[in-house]
Design brief:
single chain, mainly alpha, 8 helices, 2 strands, about 5% strand
């Protein structure tokens, strides 16, 4: 880590030679390989611990989560061929990336010029706008099978048919509210 940090400082100052750049790449790849091995070791230890003790929020569990979070963290980005770790630049570059990937276009490529849509006649439209009549509601209830599964209130249509005289006004009012 110290060697990588030293080479990074040299790179920021602009005095990094090509051989040192290659050395830095080798050091970073070794660091990544070591990280993978450590994560694998932590995962194996966690699995053993979880089998032995069951899943509990232990110190080991939280340290492995912390280690994973640190490892997955974005350290920097390459901007114009230069490596940059400044947070404001990282945010700006991430915003540019998402803006370019998810930019909305005005033209969706869908043309409906030659498509004829079916439309309702004036009579059909008016019949849909009219409320339900008492006769239509009663006919719908009587056409429904009485022993089908009950609704969310626990009552099936046999109950409605048997109690129609008592419930019809409230049922018609409810259907009016629905409409």
């Amino acid at each position: 880590m110290q060697d990588i940090e030293y080479l990074d400082r040299q790179d920021c100052n602009g005095v990094l030679m090509e051989s040192e750049r290659l050395k830095r790449l080798d050091l970073v790849s070794c660091l990544k390989e070591t990280d993978k091995k450590l994560e694998s070791l932590f995962r194996q230890k966690a699995r053993v611990s979880w089998f032995k003790n069951g899943f509990t929020c232990t110190k080991f569990f939280h340290s492995s989560l912390r280690w994973r979070r640190i490892r997955k963290e974005v350290k920097g980005v390459e901007v114009g061929g230069l490596w940059c770790e400044e947070p404001s630049t990282l945010r700006l570059e991430a915003k540019k990336l998402f803006d370019s990937r998810f930019k909305a276009t005005k033209d969706l490529g869908v043309r409906l010029d030659a498509v004829e849509f079916k439309s309702l006649s004036l009579d059909d439209n008016l019949s849909l706008l009219d409320g339900f009549t008492k006769k239509e509601i009663r006919d719908a209830v009587w056409q429904s099978e009485g022993l089908k599964s009950p609704g969310p209130d626990g009552f099936n249509f046999n109950f409605l048919k048997n109690s129609w005289e008592f419930l019809k006004d409230e049922f018609v009012a409810m259907m009016g509210l629905f409409h």
